[in-house]
Design a protein that fits this description.
The record marks 142 as: Important for catalytic activity. It comes from Kocuria tytonicola. This is 3-hydroxyacyl-CoA dehydrogenase. Helix content is 48%, strand content 13%. By secondary structure, the chain is of the alpha/beta class. The chain has two domains: 6-183, NAD(P)-binding Rossmann-like Domain (Rossmann fold); 197-276, N-(1-d-carboxylethyl)-l-norvaline Dehydrogenase, domain 2 (Orthogonal Bundle), CATH 1.10.1040.10. An eight-stranded mixed β-sheet has the order 3-2-1-4-5-6-7-8. Helix 8 links the parallel strand 7 and strand 8. The protein is globular and about 55 Å long. The protein starts with 5 loop residues before the first strand and ends in a 19-residue tail after the last helix.
């Protein structure tokens, strides 16, 4: 397959905006699609915020950042966003029915050349592949939050994925500065979240059952292990919406209680995690 140059990102939330900026920084032409003009109008502010982080963490120059920003555009027109896409990366909330709906819409209008990638934290490609209408071109490319620093790109197909599509996405991940990780068969949670989610779940259950406050749980983990972040600091990076969806879909009583408390105490108050300046902790 030809090099994947024209990138469409579906959804401009925490990870969607990061994926778009990372791809543009490494020379790709990127179109970001979202559902309203109000959301799209906020993209320049996100590029400004990310630019500051790239200066801090990657010693990015003004010239590099200007070039990256020039390669980014936003739209509410799905057909226009996909018109010349070599690869589309979906980053909408972690809800199976929503993702199926979005992928059915993408599959109807995307060019025949387009490779389809889901950036899901927990869902399998085979859960959604048929909804696209093009299952042979569908696979997962999973990013960790703060993609420019925590730069794993987990590539996972399903039984019907064309191996050439897997190879193309592995190459693409490397081209945009990721460490490409090939997952050889489907695994819920991939590698990263197969390790991370049980850890965060254990911390969440301690919290929702009032065993200890989030700060004390974090302090225990950092002190005893030497880790730089505790579980609730990590969750602030993940974002409250993703945290809520994962717990709502977990199917246990404790996880449902976690989701309800997160919605009541954080999401309903506009405290979405580090991206909004307030989550379990307050950020500048």
């Amino acid at each position: 397959m030809a090099e994947l140059t024209n990138v469409t990102v579906i959804g401009s939330g925490v990870l969607g905006s990061q994926i778009a900026f990372q791809a543009a920084y490494f020379g790709k032409t990127v179109t970001v699609y979202d559902i309203s003009e109000e959301i799209v109008s906020k993209l320049p502010a996100k590029w400004e915020r990310l630019s500051a982080l790239y200066v801090r963490d990657m010693a990015a120059t003004p010239e590099q950042l200007a070039a990256a920003t020039s390669r980014l555009s936003g739209t509410t027109d799905l057909a226009a966003a996909l018109a010349d896409a070599d690869i589309v990366i979906e980053a909408v909330p972690e809800n199976l029915e929503l993702k199926k709906k979005v992928w059915a819409q993408i599959g109807e209008v995307a060019p025949e050349k387009t490779i389809f990638c889901i950036n899901s934290s927990t869902l399998l490609p085979s859960d959604i592949a048929e909804a696209t209408g093009h299952p042979e071109r569908f696979l997962a490319l999973h990013f960790a939050n703060e993609v420019w620093r925590n730069n794993t790109g987990e590539v996972m197909g399903h039984a019907g994925t064309d191996p050439a599509a897997v190879d193309a996405v592995l190459a693409f991940a490397e081209q945009i500065g990721m460490v490409a990780i090939h997952i050889q068969k489907e695994q819920a949670g991939y590698i990263l979240n197969s390790l991370l989610v049980p850890f965060l779940t254990a911390a969440s259950h301690l919290w929702v059952n009032d065993i200890a406050q989030a700060e004390e749980i974090d302090k225990t983990w950092r002190t005893a292990t030497g880790s730089p972040l505790g579980p609730f600091q990590i969750l602030d990076h993940v974002g409250m919406e993703t945290y809520y969806q994962i717990n709502m879909n977990a199917g246990t009583e404790e996880s449902r209680r976690v989701a309800e408390r997160v919605k009541r105490e954080y999401i309903d108050q506009g405290h979405m995690g580090r991206s909004s300046g307030q989550g379990f902790y307050t950020y500048e």
